[in-house]
Amino acid sequence: MTSSTTSSPQPDRPVRPNLAFRQVRGRHSPAEFAALVRRAAREIGERVSCDARYIGRVEAGEIRCPNYAYERVFLHMFPGRTLADLGFAPRSSVRGRATRPPEDVPLALASGETQGAIEPYDPQDPYETHDNYEESDVLRRLFMTGGGATVAAATLGPLGFTIDAVAADRPVRRAGSSHAAALEEAVRRIRLLDDRHGADGLYRRAAAPLRAAYALLDAGATRQTTAERLHSGAGELAISVGWLAHDSGRFDDARSHYAEALATARMTGDPGLEAHAFCNTAFLARDSGRPREAVRAAQAAQRVGRPLGSARLMSLLALREAGGWAGLADRTGTEQALARAQALFERGHSDADPEWMSFYGEAELEGLEAQCWSMLGDWPRAARHARRAADLQDPHFTRNIALYTAELADDLARGGRPDEAATAGMRVLDLLGQVQSSRIQGMLAGTARVLLPHRRASGVQEFLDRHASTPRVV
């Protein structure tokens, strides 16, 4: 609903894709390019809420001219070029498109933002377009106003679960402890859902709370302790969303989210968050076929994580390093890192163990060791550890049970035991009704290919037929 002082919008115009902007993005994914935009903004002291969706809308021609903050960033990124060179329309051609206030109560998520501002990171721009306002619609729905300690719900898809974000009666000028608590709870709930159901059904919807979290950081906090909680929570949420991308095969997106978490950790001097970000970066590098990077990231994580005093954390980081060495086919390096991981694990739990490591128990230790031996081609040894992992796993971690059993099936198939592999594969198929993970589906597809020449072995044809008829979740 517009006020009487707001001019009418111009008639709709045909939307033309911005091919010039798409060309300058080059081989970067939208998420990677958005991360470069945010980095460039920090270099010149600007703040922009750029994400993959914004890049997509620019390239689709939906954003005909960026606001002044984005203009400064783009011209900094591409010196010597004009907005026209980047495919944008002259600002004069869009100034007539007046802004409209939101139908719900707007949120001033950036410090000093004035009501009616459309792009929350450039409140002084009086000529922002309605297109830019739509960029923050997710934030408005997520942190809606209400009475007292009401909450706004962002639904996480078909699982019917919601992430709650505490809201106040007035627009958020400064974030308080209630916002920090809501953010921390969002992280816990996303991890809980991933443990049970896998990443594929969660990733896209989990990105909205992440954008909201970083908007809260820009709003500032009432107390230093709250600010520290917000930064830690936003970083952990970035890692959680990155893991959802990682597990669903979106490696470029995962890399961007992990890098965002690492930057947050370093800006705030949070060694626990930095170790976590490096830990996941190492895991991603291994899965992306960059084993040397995996080793370096795992070693960096160990350097920053050692003063934290958690033997279990150091054990997991040693396993990440072992995975990198295995990817490099360095058996000696792998064995040494695995020995360190086992020795550190045996020291047991401590109060210094990070909350996010609740998944790391004996089953995960066995599962990660199985992956190392598998990469080294020692199928019998890999199968033994994978079987132990599946047997030891707490039933709550449905996704991990499916993962370890898929690892077992593949190791058995490659180790010349097709009948046992088919039996394990059938158990994974039984779990795919509860678990949505492209990672697990990809492993099972590889096992099926290995088993194709062994159709006559007991149970193999039945497994192949059922696998072929199982729909892939996209």
Question: What are the main properties of this structure?
Answer:
disordered N terminus, globular, 474 residues, mainly alpha, 20 helices, Serine Threonine Protein Phosphatase 5, Tetratricopeptide repeat
- Rg, Cα atoms, Å: 24 Å
The rough form would be described as: globular
Major beta-sheet overview: 2 strands, antiparallel
Helix- and strand-based class? mainly alpha
Helix content: 55-70%
Spatial strand sequence of the major β-sheet: 1-2
Determine the mean pLDDT: 77
In angstroms, what separates the terminal alpha carbons? Answer: 37 Å
Low-confidence stretches: 1-13, 95-171
Number of strands: 2
What sequence of helices (H) and strands (E) makes up the elements? HHHHHHEEHHHHHHHHHHHHHH
Strand content: under 5%
Number of helices: 20
Describe this structure in words.
Helices cover 58% and strands 2% of the residues. The protein is an all-alpha fold and 474 residues long. Among the domains are: 86 residues; 128 residues, no CATH class; 90 residues, Alpha Horseshoe (Serine Threonine Protein Phosphatase 5, Tetratricopeptide repeat). Helix 15 packs antiparallel against helix 16, helix 16 packs antiparallel against helix 17 and helix 17 packs antiparallel against helix 18. The longest helix is centred in the middle third of the chain and has 24 residues. The chain starts with 18 loop residues before the first helix and ends in a 5-residue tail after the last helix. The N terminus is likely disordered.
